[in-house]
Amino acid sequence: WAPPADMESRVPAESASPGGAATSGPRPADREGLLQQSREFLDFFWDIAKPEQETRLEATEKLLAYLRARPQGPERKYALKRLITGLGVGRETARPCYSLALAQLLQSFEDIPLCSVLQQIQEKHDLQKVKKAMMRPALFANLFGVLALFQSGRLVKDSEALLKSVKLLQNLAQHHNHLQEQPQKALVDILSEVPAATLQAILPKVLKADLNSVLGSPEHLELFLLAQQKVPEKLKELIGPVNLFSDENIPRLVNVLKTAAASVKKERKLPAVALDLLRLSLREGKFPRFWKEVVEQGLLKKQFWPASYLCFRLLGAALPLLSEEQLPLVMQGDLIRHFGEHMVTAKLPKQFKFAPEMNEYVGAFLEGCRDDPERQLAVVVAFTRITNQGLPVLPTFWRVVRSLSPHALKGYVAWLQTTFLRPDLDSLVDFSTSNQKKAQDASLHGPERAVFRLRKWVILRLVSTVDALHAEKEDDLIEEVARFCFFHSFFETKKPTSQIPETEQQFSFPLESRTREVVSSAFFSLLQTVSTQFRLAPARTPDGQPWTHRLVQFADLLLSHSRNVTPLTPFTTQQRQAWDRMLQTLKELEACSAEAKAKASAFQHLLFLVGIYLFKSPAESCELLADIQTCIQKSLGEKPRRTRSKAATPQEPPWVEVLVEILLALLAQPSHLMRQVARTVFSHVCVHLTPRALQLILDVLNPEKSADEDNVVVTDDSEKQSESGEVRARRGGRVDMGWATGGGTVDGEDDGDEELGDEAMMALDQNLASLFAEQKLRIQARRDEKNKLRKEKVLRRDFQIRVLDLIEVLVTKQPENPLVLELLEPLLDVIRRSMRTSSSKQEQDLLHKTARIFTHHLCRSRHYCHDVGRGLGALYAQVERLVQQAGRQADASLSLYYFNAALYLLRVLKGNSTAATVCKPQKKEKAGPKKSRPQERGCRASGGLDLSLVTPIFSSALTSFLTKRNSPLTVPMFLSLFSRHPVLCKSLLPVVIQHVTGQARPRHQAQACVLLQKALPTRELRLCFEDPEWEQLVSQILVKVTENLRTLGEAQSKSEQQQELSSLGLLNTLLRTIHQEKLTVDLTGVLGVLQSQQQRLQPGGRSASCSRLCNLYWQAMKALGVQRPKSEKKEAREVPKVTQSPLSAKRKKKGFLPETKKRKKRKLEGAAPAEEAKPTAPGGDQPPSTGKRRRRKRKAQGPTQANGTPATKRPAPEAMTPSAPAKTPKLQEKQQPSQVNGARAASPAAPAGRKQPQKDLPEKGVSGKSPQSALPRKKARLSLASRSPTLLQSGAKRKKASLKKARKP
């Protein structure tokens, strides 16, 4: 990445002054401060050239703020020079950045003369002196310099600078190879902003008095149009009267527009010269000639796509400028047909599509003329008439329709209805693509096909229009469209009548049956739109009737006028009686009480929909209506039953089961509206649900009951059968082949070598042809059968996904219903099967929805069943069954679902007594802890759980988890069990403790330690134990952990390392518990074991991955009162220095001294110990001691006489054992002896031969506090320097002074 503009290394060589104004003047005194002290100022110029726009703008603002704070300083001159230099950098993206910054600078500081800036630009980038290789950057530097002057807003006010800039642009225009048409475009932009008087003076200098020159390029033509608009008299005086739209000038205009279209090919915008020509033609009244000869017969004939896109953009830009009489000229010609062909053929992903851009043009036009509905309607209708063999090219859902005014929208809907009834094919702008013309068949592409395609599109456009109207609350228009669709779906007119406006609508082409099917499908789509949220129409139904009620009333009106209207499928007597009974039931539902109003509303909606479906499928809907009416009458007369015992009584009416079957039948239909209605109705009747009704729903999810072919055995048998069928087909083929060859064998064993005659050969060919045709039919039949089975499976899965809606409603609306408990195993079966065969997206959707219902709506629900009734024993059996199944699964993720189901059942068995029994005793414990026994608390915490039944279930599962090699159970499962049921956790703790050590695998031992480590700190578990019992438990676990720690540091495999880490983690948890609760536990054994393993945990002999093990070890030692020695870190720095590898040198820790300082420090090693060995004198050279130092001295000396025991003397270096590394006096002073159980334990760093003064150990452990060091922690951390400050501090000062002398040369 090249540096922006002017590098600092070039600054001293370019000029003596920062601004570069003069090289012969005196050198500035502050050049060093400007370029070196203000690094922030120089960074502005680097940020200005960065590609990020936000960074450039921010840097420009900061630069201007910096310069405003120093208006008279040299920074402004330097900034001006730096920006001018940056205009000619080699990076093309940086030039506009510097140009914009220069424009902002000139705009902020108006005292800078523009002429001098322009002169500096020409001098810095002199086109006469620049080398040939640097010509292109110099040209662009001059161009961007002029643009910067123009963007500052001051150029049009300075006539002298304006003339110089125009002259410079004219010179730059000669270098067409590098700059193309950019100078001319800049000149037009500048002159468009100048006043008319200035333009009148400059015009003779920039515009030649030659029409050929004017029509030579888009820029000259644009300049001509600008002059004709602003100074027409001066232009007429200069060139004379000019008619651009004459016969001889039109070909030139076409060429100029084609050139302009090619110049904006990448920008994809409308050239300004084209829009100016359009406005000129409108002003002069020559728009028809311009549009016909220049656009349609000129540019379109070029067969050049940029020219076509220019025409399309010109069409969009012309819409706001044209009147209602001029719109048909542009909307019915060759251009609009060419646009429609582009809409049809531009289908490839990488192909440019102009439709979104045209939508923006039309949307802007409709928004801008909302007060002119006639023009809006004319444009929308004109675009709708662009058809490809009768089918409009626009999509049925067009967003711009939302911008229509209400009057224009009503007119558009009326036009669509008229087009549906009486299509006018002659008024359409119809076309056929080249491929369609090649494959044209007059018998297939008649007017009937075009009418069908047009009517199909129109009815879908009507429905999509209602989607936009739904938000605008145009209720009358919605009802009109719904009545129109309903009438033409199911009725036909016999005799027109004024009472039904739809009967007065006549067809010019008869309505075909396939068209009525499309209208029927569109009608139910419309019904879903208006009925999704029970949309109300306050103007027509003030009592709050749903939308479908209007349609039912309209249908009843049509049935009552049998002389004028007849249904396409006439009703039988039974169907008409069902319709009448439905209307009577609706009246009864309207008269229901306020309590049953919600349920009555749901039933009303169901009746409305089934009643409307009576016109589509009369036989099925008639039976459904009778069943629904019976269910409604019984449901409104019954009270809800919640418990299982009441629901199972034989007096329970079967209406719920019948209604569930009806809802399942509705869900089987591929209608989203029916799915919503079934969900709504079931939410009101699920309170009456019976086990038999629930079983009807669950049978759909069961593959055996729903005839699903997911069974592997069945699939294998079918495959075997198909394979055997193929074998038989081959054998049959061999037999047929033998028969076809005249009875001979295929293997060539025929004895005769006679040749067949012509007749025999012909017969043989016919036999072979029939044989292969039959075999081909067999293969095709087999493929069709497979496709049929696949489609049936897809439909079955989709039906199961829909039925899950009912289960979701049940667990959401009735979570306390005992029937919810029967959903666990069926849902788990669905999850298990879907996880096994979740290959397709549909299977994954079924799995995700079932898992979401099971996890979020069932297991994590706040409400659950509190009244189990007589099914208590069955629930315990179900818990055992679920836990066993969880242990048999092959995947832990699947096992988790079964385990969560068992936890949910435990929650149900436990009931909600926990919150009422545990919280109150906790308040009483503060006043008297003896009043609440742990046994009573445990009994109340267990609630309704029978521990004698539950404990063996989970005990066997826990044993299996801690013994099996590959168990699907995991530690989080049992931790969740322990946290939710601490009483059960108390019963399972012996099983876990048993597997902490012994014959268990290291991985299982680690899992047992983790379980204990996470379970012991919980407060709920502690409340289940008495104090002696809890202390005994902790001691028992401590013994097990101590036994594990005897092999600490000997791990070879990953599982053994994990076992060591888990054991140390559990030990730290136990020590923390002992310390916090002040338990009386003997810790001498574990301390001895840990001290014996210290040599194995030396950092030098261990890998870096085991640092966590060392940290856990010393954390435990710290809890036992032994501090971690600091000498290990120092030895790690100094001792391995001789054999230190280059890799370890690179990885040295941050903060270590460099090697140079270490070498200088070795020279003083002989003097430093001598200074430390001097005795402390009370007076003399020492400074007077302050009170703070006396306090430090007392703190350092006080602990040595604690408990009446004399301080331990510092061992001599020669008395240490070889295994113990030599330590400095400072580190040895930090390691004070610690006490365990009243005795002083020997420090790990102490020599083995010396005895430490001890006290006799008591018979039992320490009571009250856990063993700690005799020295407090803060006091133990005090260094020797703080205890005798005067000696060592003076020595440290001498060392620093000597180091400073050594650094100086």
From TrEMBL:
Region (Disordered): 1-31, 708-731, 920-940, 1122-1305
KW Nucleus (keyword) present: yes
Major place of residence: nucleus
Biased composition (Basic residues): 1145-1163, 1187-1196, 1292-1305
InterPro entries per UniProt: ARM-type_fold, DNA_pol_V/MYBBP1A
GO molecular function: RNA binding; sequence-specific DNA binding; transcription corepressor activity
Subcellular compartments: Nucleus
Cell cycle among keywords: no
Bias-annotated ranges (Low complexity): 1166-1180, 1238-1250
Cellular component aspect of the GO annotation: nucleolus
Keyword entries, A-Z: Nucleus
Biased composition (Basic and acidic residues): 717-729, 922-939, 1125-1136
Short name of any one Pfam family annotated for the protein: DNA_pol_phi
PANTHER family from the UniProt entry: MYB-BINDING PROTEIN 1A, MYB-BINDING PROTEIN 1A FAMILY MEMBER
Family: Belongs to the MYBBP1A family.
Protein name: MYB binding protein 1a
